[in-house]
Write the structure tokens for this entry.
Amino acid sequence: MVFGDRAITYSLLADTVDRLAAALSERGVAHGDRVAILMLNRPEFVETFLACQAIGGCAVPINFRLKSDELAYILDNSDARAIVCDAELSETAAAVARELPVRIAVGDTPAGFEGYESLLEAWPATTDPRSDPDGEDLAFLMYTSGTTGRPKGAMLTHQNLVCNTLNWIYELAARADDVWLAGLPLFHIGGLNGILPFVMLGSTSVIEPSTGFDPGRSIELLLEHRVTMCFFVPTQWRAICEHPDAPALCDGPLRTAMWGASDSPRETLELMSQTLPGIEIVSAFGQTEMSSNTTMLKGPDAIRKLGSVGRPVVNVEVRVVDDDHLDVDAGEVGEIVYRGPTVMKGYWEAPDATAEAFAGGWFHSGDLVRADADGYLYVVDRKKDMIISGGENVYPAEVERVLLEHPAVSEVAVIGAPHPRWVETPVAMVVLVAAGAASPEQLIGHCAERLAGYKKPTAIHFVDALPRNASGKVLKRELRAAYGSLA
């Protein structure tokens, strides 16, 4: 692993993992216990995760942007026994982790915490701390973003992670001589799971800092470390491709440029294709509950099927169904449901939510998609966000994409509001690039030119910013509370 000026060999990594595993075990962290990880991107995050796996523990990565009450909920809900954190995050951790038996901090050690570095120095791995977990034992407890309420812990097993890792290697033909870099936080399912294939292969992983994304610096890292495969979210890719140094990437060893984690405007995908000719552009779609990848769009299909999330990856079964769990025809919109060895075990201590998610024996994603005649999938929207206006389904993501095409629009979120005639109607909250850059009438007219009449917003409300959670997702429940009656 490479991070800044540090280069960690596999022999050093193995020694560190054994030392940390032995120290955790000696402090009472046993097979099945949950260990919270609250860190910025750094090698110690990966070391702690692997040490948990070594003793059969269950890692609980936590978003470092969470506030104290949100962090306290996850620690309490997961019944964590230990926490390993950055010193700079320890003040937040200390406020809510007083009852945890084991508290470890990387860097300057605050009161009530043991020092990560001194602990490793004082604890040689003289005995083998490793356990032999079963494939169905929990490896990961990943909390979903909770945009509709309290977050739920997706229970991912050792089998889930191993199978997802093998799927990833197979689909992308990853090799031992590859070098990987991802512009994702390690607490994200795609951040840590993106490194696992390269650990299995004995390849190199370059870890980017968590904060202050700089497209120029990312290009420097890609070139400096001769990265062959990388992943960035669409907004990052746009910034990279607009940077004057981006064409230099085509002269290096980079062969696979991946994107995902959010929807991408068509213009961004076209910009990637124009800026990175000869480099394979891959869309990776999935979700936490699926360990993460479920479909990919690769190779020539990235142009031929622009906008699609591709076809199912190996070992993932997919259906597109209606509300009665019956398959819909090609071209019709339905919910994508999954089955296979990467599907989570369920939601932690949430039997009702688990039963609902697995109705009919398939995992219900909540994503509305349509499949074309060739079986390529296109995401339409989240099922819970769908608006029914005059008996017609309106998908907010479609309206949002059209509004984002207007040069005056910086950000947008669309919700449903009550309507005396149509029952429900689309309403848009818009952040303009500059005050007065457009009027509501202009934006509604823009939509009317590009969408069926029932899809265009009935009202436009200009806002300074959209409310977001710690993962950056728009909190539509807050928008509904504030604007849901203003059609």
The domain at 2-133 is CATH 3.40.50.980 (Rossmann fold).
